[in-house]
Design brief:
The chain is α/β, with parallel strands linked by helices. It folds into two domains: 62 residues, no CATH class; 345 residues, 3-Layer(aba) Sandwich (Rossmann fold), CATH 3.40.50. The chain is built from twelve helices and 18 strands. A seven-stranded parallel sheet has the order 8-7-6-9-10-11-16, sandwiched between helices. Bound molecules: nicotinamide-adenine-dinucleotide. Nicotinamide-adenine-dinucleotide binds next to helix 2, strand 7, helix 6 and strand 10.
Length: 433
């Protein structure tokens, strides 16, 4: 199946495997294949005083800018045929898909606004869960995803396995940055609602390639907002993030708090997309709901996120990287609760509204590790590493607004959620790194 190169070298998302030129934290020599095929390696040691000693072998190390220029290919749009799922002759409700060698055409035979929901990022962790819930509830879902290689696209294809069995689900393989393509998809699928989840995700990698994050998370969002405004979409639900609160010391974080000080490019792009949503709501009368998700976990969690990464490494008997002294805290939110909050947001009539969706009971990194140990029965071998730039110290959601207006009630706590994720991990052999 075709894979879109995000323009992101997925090896750099694995900040604990020694392949990342920024933190150089491996204890063993780590081969580094550069974009043009030469091999270099580095050996790093964490000294007692927290200083990292790095020795380079092979060719001398390049400057960070030079390494970036060599490593990252230009963002590419996938125009390849989209596979068997799209070749169904006709789908229920009259939605018809045909694939052509260089494009995908969508044509609707149903009436406008006939309950179609367009979900971008449908193959991802949250998008696949949301699409399943929508389809199970009787909605017709058009999923858009470019299967970018930020993490293994095979995992994304696996996420869609059951959805692709449903006649109510249609997959469009496309890049949200392609404005013409998004216009075509929205014009022809005629969704009443767009749930926009597609994004370049992750805080730390955004420090490496901020322009890529801006082009996908800001440019891609604009192309969808434009298409939505042009083709009479009623509601646009946008995935934002708790990261917009930056290093705010005021807890819990409320939607009314100032969010003018993001500390990573990822966070800045998420805030920018909220602001664009506001502008489109104001100018075009589009109803825009922004959902600030707080660290989401559960089955299919992205392999770059802490719980999935720790489980995979602990199961293999490997060390787990713990950045900082373990006191940083996160408000973990189980994916089913996120989906419930998102489903409720789809129904909201407001012109523009922001909601926190969090679990509302933050835990420290140390407690998280202990909980994983307890649930899995495995012992964590911890490798302490310096706190990372871009990582916030804490997240903690005030969910009063979501409680009142969305009837949002997080129901799955950390321990139970980790137990479900562990069960899924074992049954699917889990996503390695
Ligand atoms: N998982 C979390 O803890 C969390 C927390 C806060 C916010 N969010 C937000 O929720 C959304 C979903 O996150 P997730 O954890 O499911 O991530 P994910 O990476 O699993 O899903 C994102 C999907 O978007 C797709 N995508 C990326 N670039 C694209 C492009 N240019 N065109 C089309 N598709 C593209 C990817 O292929 C992927 O399938 C994101 O917007 C993310 O920023 C997630």
């Amino acid at each position: 199946m075709p894979t879109a190169a995000c323009g992101f070298d997925s090896r750099l998302s694995h900040f604990d495997n020694g392949a990342n030129p920024r933190d150089n934290t491996s204890a063993m020599p780590a081969p580094t294949n550069t974009a043009d095929g030469d091999n270099r390696f580095h050996t790093s040691r964490l000294l007692g005083n927290g200083v990292i000693l790095t020795k380079w072998g092979g060719a001398p190390p390049l400057s960070l800018a030079a390494r970036m220029a060599r490593r990252f290919t230009l963002p590419r749009v996938s125009l390849a045929p989209v596979g068997a799922a799209l070749q169904r002759p006709a789908l229920s409700g009259g939605l018809r898909i045909t694939s052509r060698p260089s494009n995908v055409r969508v044509s609707t035979g149903g009436s406008p606004g006939h309950g179609v929901i367009l979900v971008t990022g449908a193959a991802g962790f949250i998008g696949s869960h949301l699409s399943e819930r929508l389809v199970a509830g009787g909605s017709r879902v058009v999923g858009v995803d470019n299967f970018c290689d930020f993490y293994d696209p095979t995992l994304k294809r696996r996420n869609l396995q059951s959805l692709l069995q449903s006649p109510r689900f249609t997959l469009i393989e496309a890049d949200i940055r392609d404005g013409d393509r998004m216009d075509q998809v929205v014009r022809e699928a005629r969704p009443s609602v767009i749930v926009h989840l597609a994004a370049m995700v992750g805080v730390r990698p955004s420090l490496e390639v901020p322009s890529l994050y801006a082009s996908v998370n800001v440019g891609g969002t604009v192309s969808l907002l434009q298409a939505a405004a042009r083709h009479g979409v009623r509601r646009f639900v946008l995935a934002s993030s708790s990261s917009v609160y930056g290093n705010s010391r005021k807890v819990p974080f409320s939607e009314e708090d100032p969010v003018d000080h993001p500390i990573s490019p990822y966070a800045a792009t998420k805030r920018a997309s909220e602001l664009l949503g506001h502008a489109f709501a104001h100018v075009h009368g589009l109803s825009v709901i922004c959902l600030r998700y707080f660290t989401v976990f559960g089955p299919r969690q992205r392999p770059d996120l802490a719980i999935a990464k720790f489980m995979a490494r602990m199961a293999r008997g490997q060390e787990i990287p713990v950045f900082g002294d373990g006191s940083s805290s996160r408000d973990y939110t189980y994916v089913d609760d996120i989906v419930s909050g998102t489903m409720a947001a789809i129904q909201r009539p407001d012109p523009f509204r922001i909601y926190n969706l969090g679990g509302s009971s933050p835990v420290t990194l140390s407690t998280l590790v202990e909980t994983i140990e307890r649930v899995t029965g495995l012992r964590a071998r911890i490798r302490r590493l310096p706190a990372q730039p871009g990582d916030v110290e804490r997240t903690c959601a005030d969910i009063a607004r979501a409680r009142e207006e969305l009837q949002y009630r997080p129901t799955v706590g950390l321990e139970e959620g980790i137990a479900r994720q562990w069960e899924w991990f074992r049954s699917s052999q889990g996503p390695g790194e």
